[in-house]
Every structure is written in C-alpha cells, then in structure tokens.
Amino acid sequence: MSPFERDPFARFRNATRARIGLGRAGDALPTSAILDFQLAHARARDAVHGHVDFVALAKQLAPVPTVRIRSRAKDRTIYLARPDLGRQTNADDLPNPGDRYDIAFIIADGLSASAVEHHAVPLFKACMKRLGGFSIAPVVLGEQARVAFGDEAAAAFGAEVAIVLIGERPGLSVPDSLGAYITFRPQSGRRDSERNCISNIHADGLSYEVAADKIVWIVREALRLQLTGVDLKENAEGAIEALPHQEA
Q: Is 147 annotated to bind ligand?
C-alpha cells in the first residue's frame, strides 16, 4: 500500500497550512494534533499580548531618524478593550509642525508584536530602496496603535502619503503576519475605504521584495492620481490601475 493510500490527505498537507485530515484517536483528535493546536493558540495569544521593543527597533533603523508616539490607550489591556483609543495619538507626543514630506512611515505594534519585530524593518528598507527622489519623514514608532493612528501621526509631518506597517491579527497558522496600509493625504477621520492594504507579509506569505514593489506602485499612483482606497485597484495580472472616481 502506498503512503497516499494509507493517508489520502498527505498530498494536500504539502500544499496548505490548513489543518486537514487530522485523524482521530477513539472519539477524539490524536494527541499530536491537539498539542499542535494548543501551541498555535499560545503563539497567537503571545503575539497579541506581546510588547514591541521600540528601543531595539530604533537602533535597527539607524541612522534613519525616528520619533516615538503613543496612542491614547495607556496599556495593552485598554488597547484591546478600546479600539477607538488605539486610533488616536497622544497629542503630547506629536512633533511641532515643521517641514512637509512626501511620505511618512508609521511602524505600529497593532495586534502582533512578533510581526513587527520580525518583518517591519526589512520591509521598510526594501521600500526605501525604491523611493529615491521622495522626501521621507522621520519614522514614527507607534505604541498601542491601530491603523487610523497613522493618519494623525502622518498629518503632523504634513505628509502627502502615510504608509502604516502594522502587526495583523494573528491566526492559528500564522502568528506574525505584517500588513501595510497606504493613505493619501492622511488626516483624522479618514475612512477605511480611503486606504489600500497589502497583507500577509511574512516568511510563508508575501516576500519583502514583492510587498515593497506593490507598496511603492500604490504610492506613485496615489501621488499621480491624488487618491487611494476603493478607486485604486490591483487587477488580476498584478498591475495596479485606477478606476474612475464614482461620486456618492
């Protein structure tokens, strides 16, 4: 009997991270499957409750200047219970208005500290290699921050485009996935429909190089067309195209 006949799901496991064909031991799952699930769940919880070492992150980004800005959520417990506070900056941390910039990067902890610590700096550096000719604001390190936090932070630098690199909500197969959100003319009150998102940036997902290509494509189109969001689409062939703006 061939291995595939003994275990018909074996060929599919090589093509997916999904838990399929786990088998059974009596009326329950095998012990190995249960332990694997518990480990995945623990890793996801650790990612959500973890804390980004922003001091180490700033050192990795050097000599690029950084500024640390907190949200109005004072700790992780409040952050998880009050998403609205994570979307607002602590006004005392905002820099005084000065030079204006084309682009502001915000590295925010979001819902996965491990995603930020593993992937944010390499992705930022990959983007910077492709952004010659643009003025870049000091990198904002956002603590207890959600996506909309980047609107106020980038607006403080007068940035035309905000790029938020943030830890995505972890799953039971990937606890360290990073997302990138691009918003044209960021300001408080921007809707999610006014952003573009590149997600699933991690070791088994989108590579830094491919993600950076997509991010920079969107940035260039955003500045050319003066928009981001649902009117700026990526077609099936992988190129990004702008759709005609539809008035509400």
A: yes
Q: Is 197 annotated as a binding residue?
A: yes
Alpha-carbon Rg for the chain in angstroms = 20
Hey, where are the domains in the chain? Answer: 52-223
What pLDDT digit, counting tens, does each position of 63-104 carry? Answer: 999 999 999 999 999 999 999 999 999 989 998 767 799 999
Percentage of residues in the chain having pLDDT higher than 70: 92
**Helix (H) / strand (E) containing 223:** helix 208-225
Domain 52-223 has CATH 3.40.50.11240: yes
**127 among annotated binding-site residues:** no
Nearest to 98 by CA among 187, 159, 141, 49: 159
Beta bridge partners of 166: 108, 179
Q: Is the pLDDT of residue 243 over 70?
A: no
Closest to 155 measured CA to CA, from 247, 220, 89, 230: 89
pLDDT value at 45 more than 60: yes
